[in-house]
Structures are given as structure tokens and as C-alpha cells.
Input
Amino acid sequence: MIRIEGLTKHFKKVQALKGIDLHVMEGELFAYLGPNGSGKTTTIRILTGLSKPTSGDAYLHGFHILRETLQAKRQCGLVPQSINLDHELTVYENLNIHGKLFQMPRRVRSERIEEMLHYVDIADRRSTPIKHLSGGMKRRVMIARALMHAPKILFLDEPTVGLDPKIRRRIWSLVKKIQQNGSTIFLTTHYIEEAEFLAQRVAFLDEGRIIALDKPQNLMDRLGKWAVDKIVEGEMETTYHASREGANAHILRQVGSLSVRRVNLEDVFISVTGKKVQP
Ligand code: ADP
Ligand code: MG
Output
């Protein structure tokens, strides 16, 4: 559904993307994970036609993003990283403008707006100006807007950044529902647990390159099932073990304060990059 081949993007001083190759299958929820500045937004902006690549190709449902721009754009909806709704206009009016941009006839448009308002559970706010909504509600309006023209692919750029944990989980449920209804989802995040919870496959991006790509479970299994953390002079040192027994045996050989836990995706990221993903 999404095919990326040798994609690069150079800004004046920065090589933001250094050659990305990636296939995302139909119906997949794919997470593109990396620290701030690793190139996540740049990739999404290129795929959705907001920015041109320096070199390389990309296809959305078979349509080339540069040679068949209009068809490619119709395949996708975008929820950008920053809130770009019209704050003075109501929820309804924001969705209506998007429908007009996609040349949806008036009747179809108003029916679709009602459908989307209920879908993201914000119908009771249809006449509220955006400026009076909470952060979580604004995100839901952005998602409704992106889905107005029934795209096959939904791009979500850091959809839960700045939201509190409860609202974040609500957005996760909505994202899962959208996938269950048949959409392909490409999600960027620097919240590792978000990717671990939602995604079938994840790519780890670091300084414009994909450094690991697989199912979350496979990536974690390669490291080991159990992690033992030890604080040494204020720094955390972690060792990985295939079995709980192995982890326990390791602890018995050590002195100091140690704790054992399951391996998570953050361990994978730290072990492949030597960095923490949280900015
Ligand atoms: P992410 O979304 O992963 O945080 P970005 O894709 O926004 O990362 O940025 C990747 C790199 O490209 C960063 O070093 C950033 O400073 C740089 N960059 C992004 N957009 C521009 C731009 N318009 N002009 C110059 N540099 C840019
Ligand atoms: Mg970004």
C-alpha cells in the first residue's frame, strides 16, 4: 500500500533522509519510531505531497507521489504533528472546508461530516469553535477531517504528543478502530509504548536511516526476554537474558541494587542506537 524506494531529502545543512526503503502492507498499522529530528515528519511530508524528495521514489496504492500527485493524494489522509485547524471556525465548518477541497458534493459532504462526527465521538461539539476544545478533542477533529474523503491510508504524525495518558489511550482505541475498518495506518511516534501497543511492525529511524524493522515481538525476542537493571554510579546498566532463571542467576552474582523486568521495545532502541528515544 505504501512503497518507498531510496528516498533521500537534503536541506541546506542537514541530510534529513539518507535513503529510506520501506513497504507497508494493506491493512497494516505501521509505526515509524525515532527520536526528535530523526526524519519522521520529513518522510510523512514527502509521502503526502507537502515536500519534494531530493531523490528516490514512493508510491501510495500504486500511484507515484510525483508523477501521479493527485491520485496519490486521494489515497491518503494526514493528521499533521501540529494542530492546524481553523480555531475561529466550528468543528463542523472545519470538516466542511476539507470536504469542499476534495470537491465532495454538498449532500455527500454533510452526510459524511455527520458520520465522521459520530465516528470520533464529537458530534455534541459540532457547533463549538475549535478554540474552545481540549487538546484531545482537537486531535479527534483532526482525525475526522483526515478521514473525510475516505482515504485508504491514514498518516498520523505524533498523534498523541502532549496528551495526558488517559486521553492518549482513547486516541489509541480510535486508531485501532480505524484500522479494523480496513485502513492502512502509518504512525510516527517517539513514545515507544505507543508503537509497542498499536503496531504490527515498527521501523526504528535514527538520523535519517532505518536501523531496525520488524514485528515488535521479534525485535524484543532477539535481545532476550528478561532485562536486569543495575544502577552503577547513577547510571543504569542493563543486561538481557533469555530466561528468568538466567536473569536470577545473574542477579545472585552481583552486588548492589538490581531489578528484573520484561524486555520492552525501548531496550531494543537503546541497544541498536545507544540512545534513548525520549527527547
Ligand atoms: P522528526 O519528525 O523525526 O522529529 P524531522 O523530519 O522534522 O524529524 O526533521 C529531520 C531533520 O531535518 C532535523 O534535523 C530537522 O532539523 C531537519 N529539517 C526538517 N525540516 C527542515 C526544513 N524545512 N529546513 C531545514 N531543516 C529541516
Ligand atoms: Mg516530527
User: Anything to note?
Assistant: DSSP finds ten helices and 13 strands in the chain. The first strand starts at residue 2 and ends at 10.
